[in-house]
Amino acid sequence: MSDFKPGLEGVVAFETEIAEPDREGGALRYRGVDIEDLVGQVSYGHVWGLLVDNSFTPGLPPAEPYPIPVRSGDIRVDVQSALAMLAPAKGMRPLLDISDEQARDDLARASVMTLSFVAQSARGTGLPAIPQERVEAVDAYWTSAAEHGMNASTFTARVIASTGADVAAALSGAVGAMSGPLHGGAPARVLHMVEEVERIGDATTYVRAELDKGERLMGFGHRVYRAEDPRARVLRRTAKELDAPRYEVAAALEEAALAELHARRPDRVLATNVEYWAAIVLDFAEVPSHMFTAMFTCARTAGWSAHILEQKGTGRLIRPSARYVGPKARPVKEVPGAEGVIGEI
Description:
12 helices; single chain; 3% strand; 3-stranded antiparallel β-sheet; 51% helix; mainly alpha; 3 strands
């Protein structure tokens, strides 16, 4: 058995043709296309097509008129449960029993319904259309966050797909994996920092005070990139082009944070990551902070769909090994609490 790697750190489990994060160069390419050439130029629906089909067209279809069946007050719960219920409602069969073409069509239907479920859970129906400049901001974020290689939610989607389950089950499981604060929750915490700088009026004072208290500055550093996160670069550009009201404050906070982090930790690369500027772009789009993770979910349906389809093509069940480190063989009477339990049946 190979060496144990906690958290599977550095373990290569798949070969993929979908996305290529360039660790050293600070770039992210979807099937060879740099995201800087996509954001603001190609809509998210067609980026979904690039990731899933290696073609911009046909991309995502329109959402079907299907009311969200659960309204718990929690967007994640509503979307995750609605996705799970989509398979029986729409007759989606297990991946093991359908063709690649049918799987692709099921993924398209389920993906666009995910976007619809988020909107229905958050806004309800019959409300005015969202202004175009806010649509542009959300589209830029979705495109930049559509795919990023292997991570907790994508791995979950592939594991479920490997069992031959239906696509809605795989997507629902991925949504659950994203609900933890370590995967998708940082942008909301970035916005809190920006609000504090606005209140104090001095970014450097805020940064030094937080670091002196041992607090972590959200939005800096990444486990993949040794340079600036390319998604941060395109979202910074988007925020500036859209004249986001908090752009200047965010830029000042970023400059102060990078300078102080470098001064205190010169041996570490702590550049800006995607969560930092995602917060500013989503705030400009008037997305409330409690919905930031839901926006990430919408974006990542593209990457999840591509990986689910790619996993189906392998025809293999994902089954890693575990090294047992528990008690050695022992008689039942040595188990704590055995007295008075043994022989009661």
